[in-house]
Amino acid sequence: MLLPVGFTFGAVLAVLLAVAVTVSAVARLRPPREVAVAGVRAAAQLAAVSLVIGWVVEAVPLLLLFLLVMYAVAVRTAGRRVTRNGTWWWAAVPIAAGVGPVVAALLLTGLVPVRGIALVPVTGILIGGALTATVLGGRRALDDLATRHGEVEAGLALGLLVRDARMEVARPAAADALLPGLDQTRTVGLVTLPGAFVGMLLGGASPLLAGAAQLFVLVGLMAVQAVAVAVVLELVARGRLHRDGGGDRVP
Hints:
Elements: H1 7-26, H2 32-56, H3 60-82, H4 92-109, H5 116-147, H6 149-157, H7 162-175, H8 179-187, H9 195-202, H10 207-237
């Protein structure tokens, strides 16, 4: 076993979490409580999932319900990270637009069977990637629209439509949301060995099969994140997703 679960395991985790909390507090990066709560929640949620997933994978209705819960949590998390007002639920659109077609294609082609042991982790990875891209793309687009509102006004003065003027300002910032995924794909095998690759190796798969699976995940993630960023940018440009009291709203 790679990580024997016991007292040492728990102690090391506690020390690492304490380091994260302390550094965040001293460097004033994030509120210490937010970091601590994130670590504790991760432990509780993974423990619960470990207990639940064993019987969820045996029944298709329960499996679909589990995937729906994953999607709902991702929408809530992404939406509330982008904005605190009632438009947060629009985050459901970019996540679904990115993940839905990819998962459907995988199921229809038979590359991923309708079994929890395969479908849950693959869908979870894709939903997580769409969540990250939606948050980064949406936040950066809204931030730029708020700080560069004068440029939007200038575009309107030149005769651009509201959507087009906002798009010209927001697009470069939102596009940066794709950089983490692109860098991970470009450096895979040279800088890091990602989880899917290592997991398959530990499970007894051949290096060639593990590499193929990891490539599949990375390329799928790029597709999902590109769609998510494009859709959230469109929602921001059209004013569907906005913040209260800022210059990011449609005039």
